[in-house]
Amino acid sequence: MKDHMMNRTLAPLITALGIAVSAPASAIIVGGVDFGTLGANPGKTHLETATLAQTFVTGNGQSASVYGYITTINGDNTYCANGSGNCGLFYTATFNNSQNFSPSYVEFTSATVSVFFTNTSPLNLFNQDSPTNIATIQSFNGGNPWVTLTGHANLGGAADPTAVLNGAGLLTGTTLSGSGFGLFDVAGPGDASVISFLNANGISDAMGGKADIALTSSFNNFFLNPFDVAGGLTTGCANGTATAGAWCYQGTTNLRGATAVPEPGMLGLLAVGLLGMSATARRRKA
What we know:
- By secondary structure, this protein is α+β, with helices and mostly antiparallel strands.
- Helices cover about 25% and strands about 35% of the residues.
- Helix 1 runs antiparallel to helix 5.
């Protein structure tokens, strides 16, 4: 009798779980953006790649301006929810309060990245100068960000514990190149569903705390915005004599994090466990 009752109790649940486990993976749509089949990814990770334009700093106590276009999400460059190319994610950022500056290294103690969604054809960022690009991006969606990222301290390594982002640079002849690393937390203002999805605390900092996003970047002065060059906004970028605020860098950025997606793998394990319990009960009765 007990085995019969157990089977009656477990059967609907196992059936429901079987449907969930056997159903094909589907796209994860959040805030108008298709993040792909993250539900089938055991790591629940996401990776965005983006272009980057950034200004030059020359000492401590300065800020850098940054902007760019998110080119792919989990390897897909057509990440609009409807599968078209008629949308885009753009960002502007400010890295504040430079410290521990040297000719080859700098840190920033605070940083804010504002990501904006537009449901129009993506803007060509080389069709106008950088100040105009920033103003245009910040006007998308009525000036309301899709999500906001704020700097997270304790980068580790040689970085000061107060640093949220650091960068290394090198001038070789006329080639100015560098790389950067930072940690970020997901915050508002932004779309509530996007904030909830990306606020997964999946990145460990050097003190055992949790951040949401790890940012890595690389940049150089090989090719600069032609409108910046024509407008005198890149003076000195080719020989290391640029003043603070010059648009000396173009490059790429990766943003890596985790997502708050229910894990289908756990459902599968639970289903197997329940089936095992049912089989054991039947053997005991026999």
